[in-house]
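Sequence, please.
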């Protein structure tokens, strides 16, 4: 029996208007990987993971990949039921409650949009490092960030096909550089070069070398590294076999990201001492490239991989933010203009331009006004919590929608019941621990996200009179499967 389902017709979703069958499952996988940003994540987290886990990060990363795969499978099952850009916004709204669905959609949009601000502000230093220029030059940083957003917005408007092809080219170059760097680093460590940290059994234990690692601290960082794979679902209306492939792409994106993260952590964390890596933490990949090659070109090649990663993440972030907004606006739950689709390019052009303008405005404020950078940092630090929250809610929606199958046989009770529930508990624990350990100002910014979402919900309900609030709850019914 296949698990593909036919959506009930009683409250059918708005018809798909974007270009159908435009991208393959491989291209969709690379879109999800770009949103995860393996090279960016490694550059920002390598030293943090060493410190938190006492070199025990490889096992922490492997364990974290398991609940992410389970939740990606929950996304896959929900997409079999209903494939549209709104994704969790509609799934949660139809399976549990439309008000919770709206808040989930807002968290998705806010997390994706503000998460994209990180690569926008990081692209300048990454590009300047490729050319051995000062990374702290303000106006060159602004010019590079502006140029990147404008170019990626134009590509996004022109069509999903060129966006997907761009991601394939960038991804191949970026991941080849990252893998070569990681394997080179591993041979460097195994060769016991001067200054290396030798691989021991502590690298593969939960508590690290000498039992000094923090399990919770490691999981906090690892969970946030994995976020972004869900991007494969927000372009589902444009993917070939849109019910099956986006979910498969999400699971492949998690699996590939796990391999890259673990390989890079093992291969790079012992190339030099922790103190040396920590002293170069703002440009650790550049330092490692120079160390391994003994020349400046190694650092420039590593900087190129980092620059490509932030470029890819920015482009995908614009695409995904626009499609989430389009999916929500299709129900008149955001300004109706965001649901407009260009007849020429078959893309949500208005939503793309709006998302790009917001990114540019936020990026300029961040880069020009050093006094607000701490406040922005608190906001950006919360994006991981936003992701963890809507991952949990979406997995819960899968359990609720498929509850008859969960109660009907042992296999579904495990794959659609127990495993997602355990994953929800894990992510919720990590999110709560992160909130409890965060500065008060960061938690206030998190509260701000919730307040803005509630205001938008009230406007959508009573001002725009969105139809999403009129939908009735749905659930899987026996006999709704079709063969693959």
């Amino acid at each position: 029996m296949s698990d593909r389902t036919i959506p009930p017709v009683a409250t059918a979703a708005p018809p798909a208007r974007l270009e159908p069958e435009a991208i393959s499952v491989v291209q969709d996988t690379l879109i999800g990987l770009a949103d995860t940003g393996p090279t960016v994540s490694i550059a920002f987290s390598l030293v943090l993971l060493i410190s938190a886990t006492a070199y025990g990060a490889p096992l922490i990363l492997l364990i974290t990949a398991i609940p992410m795969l389970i939740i990606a499978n929950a996304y896959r099952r929900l997409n079999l039921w209903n494939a549209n850009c709104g994704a969790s916004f509609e799934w949660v709204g139809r399976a549990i409650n439309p008000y919770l669905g709206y808040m989930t959609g807002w968290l998705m949009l806010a997390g994706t949009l503000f998460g994209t601000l990180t690569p926008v502000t990081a692209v300048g230093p990454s590009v300047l490092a490729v050319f051995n220029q000062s990374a702290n030059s303000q106006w060159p940083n602004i010019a590079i960030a502006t140029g990147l957003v404008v170019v990626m917005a134009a590509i996004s408007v022109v069509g999903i096909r060129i966006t997907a092809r761009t991601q394939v080219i960038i991804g191949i170059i970026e991941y080849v550089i990252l893998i070569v760097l990681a394997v080179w680093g591993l041979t460097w460590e195994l060769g016991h070069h001067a200054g290396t940290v030798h691989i021991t059994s502590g690298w593969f234990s939960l508590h690290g070398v000498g039992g000094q690692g923090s399990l919770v601290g490691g999981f906090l960082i690892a969970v946030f590294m994995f976020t972004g794979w869900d991007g494969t679902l927000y372009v589902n209306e444009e993917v070939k076999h849109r019910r099956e492939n986006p979910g498969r792409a999400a699971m492949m994106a998690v699996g590939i990201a796990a391999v890259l993260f673990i390989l890079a952590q093992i291969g790079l964390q012992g190339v030099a001492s922790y103190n040396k890596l920590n002293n170069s933490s703002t440009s650790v990949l550049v330092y490692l490239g120079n160390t391994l090659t003994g020349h400046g070109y190694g650092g420039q090649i590593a900087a190129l991989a980092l620059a490509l990663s932030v470029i890819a993440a920015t482009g995908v972030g614009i695409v995904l933010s626009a499609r989430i907004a389009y999916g929500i606006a299709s129900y008149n739950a955001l300004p109706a203009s965001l649901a407009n689709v260009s007849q020429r390019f078959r893309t949500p052009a208005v939503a793309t331009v709006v998302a790009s303008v917001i990114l540019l405005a936020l990026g300029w404020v961040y880069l020009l006004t050093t006094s607000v950078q701490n406040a922005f940092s608190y906001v950006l630090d919360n994006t991981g919590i936003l992701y963890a929250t809507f991952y949990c809610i979406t997995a819960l929606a899968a359990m609720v929608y498929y509850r008859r199958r969960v109660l009907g046989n042992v296999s579904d009770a495990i794959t659609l019941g127990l495993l997602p529930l355990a994953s929800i508990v894990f992510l919720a624990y990590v999110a709560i621990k992160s909130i409890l350990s965060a500065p008060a100002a960061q938690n206030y910014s998190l509260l701000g996200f919730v307040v803005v979402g509630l205001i938008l919900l009230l406007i959508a309900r009573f001002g725009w009179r969105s139809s999403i609030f009129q939908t009735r709850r749905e659930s899987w019914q026996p006999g709704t499967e079709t063969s693959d």
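The chain has 18 helices and no strands.
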